[in-house]
TrEMBL record, chains A, B:
Residues 30-90 form the HTH tetR-type domain. This is TetR family transcriptional regulator. One of its GO terms (molecular function) is DNA-binding transcription factor activity. The keyword ATP-binding does not apply. Residues 53-72 bind DNA. PANTHER family: HTH-TYPE TRANSCRIPTIONAL REGULATOR RUTR, HTH-TYPE TRANSCRIPTIONAL REPRESSOR BDCR. Keywords: DNA-binding.
């Protein structure tokens, strides 16, 4: 048995997210690599990427000090895999949300922002690590993650442009409003606390409404 | 002469903010303490609080390895002074903005959000350090910074309540909207790049407009 439970000293909040992450990443094989990714999120969140050693991460995952290197070439590769997995999932969720909604720009915008805000709350520790440590990635890896983020932004921009074209949105500044709408959803990960009064789904509802207010056409 | 220019290797973007910070903090005396605060911002931004040594900071400020301890008891005290200075200034700016604007809730909200967004862009490195390292502060220090942040939030909340009372705002969820409006402005520090196309003042204008859209009453 891995000895992680004796080593971790996680808050109940982190325990919760760790379990959610392990579940969300269940397709990542082998299980030890998955456990290392989750341990990496928690370790980076606790003291930042640069102050975390591969030994810290291995210990959290219940492995021997060098155990990380069986699955990842370096600490940077682990951060890259975390960033890639998290950003890819966000992109997939955003795509699905945009397609599942009825085909009005309003419904698509609401669904996309709701999806991002709910994920931002539910996986707030992961979200913070990905945002705060973007600058710690190697240039090539950073560019790859940035490209996925641009795909998410492109979906939002297209919805805003559609809404404008159809005369249902009033968006004088599509570029700036795209950044702002995404910013609103991304920032949920920063301020969200599990101990707060709102469930992720309630935050999703509120943010879908706020996004709509930012763009709606006023008679 | 301090030898910092040979040690720093700052990007032009960081150089710019460093000079703005030194100017903005010119009331902090002696000048060496001020230089250490600025060096701390740059060092924490470069590799995170936990991986930064007091020696790194002293070197960036052009001092001997132990030079920080003449002015600050610890690395944590330096981070606390940075967080306190930055948050106090934000609060002062927000107060002034709210008072200078004409006395309608709309004008006050615009002025407050414009002020926060402009500062978020202009001092984005400082803003990131304060946000990302909040958890690295000792409990008492964190509580002190949090209390200042609650004062900023209270000003925004009061404006929203006034607007609602006067029948000029439509804000079904004052608490959630206060968080969201502040979040929009705070998050500018995360995404802002000096190399981007917009000046801080343009971002301030756009964000004042977006904040207004979030609360305006639709006929």
């Amino acid at each position: 048995m891995p000895r992680r439970n004796t080593v971790l000293r996680l808050s109940p909040e982190e325990e919760l997210e760790m379990r959610a992450l392990e579940d969300g990443w269940r397709e990542i094989e082998p299980a030890t690599a998955r456990r290392l990714l989750v341990a990496g999120v928690m370790a980076f969140a606790a003291k930042g990427y640069h102050a975390t050693t591969t030994r810290d991460i291995a210990e959290r995952a219940g492995l021997s000090p060098g155990g990380l290197y069986v699955h990842f070439a370096s600490k940077e590769e682990l951060l890259y895999r975390i960033s890639l997995a998290g950003t890819r999932e966000s992109l997939e969720h955003v795509r699905k949300a945009a397609m599942a909604a009825d085909n009005t720009p309003q419904a698509r915008l609401r669904a996309v922002i709701e999806s991002l805000a709910v994920r931002g709350a539910r996986y707030h520790t992961t979200g913070r690590v990905i945002e705060y440590e973007l600058g710690s990635l190697d240039e090539g890896h950073r560019a790859e993650v940035a490209a996925l983020r641009r795909e998410i932004a492109a979906i939002v921009r297209e919805i805003l442009e559609d809404g404008r074209r159809q005369g249902v949105f009033d968006v004088p500044d599509v570029e700036g409003t795209t950044v702002a709408v995404l910013s609103l959803a991304v920032d949920v990960a920063r301020w969200y606390r599990t101990s707060g009064r709102r469930a992720p789904e309630e935050i999703g509802d509120l943010y879908a409404d706020l996004a709509w207010r930012l763009v709606r056409k006023v008679p």
